[in-house]
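Input.
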Amino acid sequence: MRRANDDFLVLTEPELGEIVRTQLVRARFAAKVEIAPEHHESWLVLGGDEVLDERPPGEDASHEDVERWRIETRTPKWGAELDEKILPAEAGLEETHISFTKGCYPGQEPIARQHYRGKVNRKLRVLDIAGDVEPGDELQLGDKTVGRITSAANGVALGYVRTEVPEDARLVTRNAHAKMRPA
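Output.
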């Protein structure tokens, strides 16, 4: 967010602040800029022209409500679905966060190569869950491990699932059954 001609604010999840600052310091080249952390409180606002929040007026969304919304919208979170080992295409970020028509940026070559020539072996999927799951639970198809749960709330979960798994497959964990929602 631009606050003035020479003042920008980058908002991140709290656990990403130092990681983002370190990357920006590395990428600042010869520019004379200061990159310093600031602490802010932010709010998730649902609504606008579309009705995304159907709770009765005056009721606050619980952490679990917001987490379920995040999972159902397949929004990855740092430390759960995202870390330095996850390819952007696996998390679906090439659909929402990456431009293939803008100028150069660090890491552009492997991302473009993956997009234009490669295929990923796993994708982040929304799962309907019957039973109890926790992050880290493995997803099984028959006797083969085909994925893992990364986040869960109120009968839904996010997880990375191998791309060769059929859309209508019934997956199992140690305490639950899972069905992938259409991609």
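DSSP finds four helices and eight strands in the chain.
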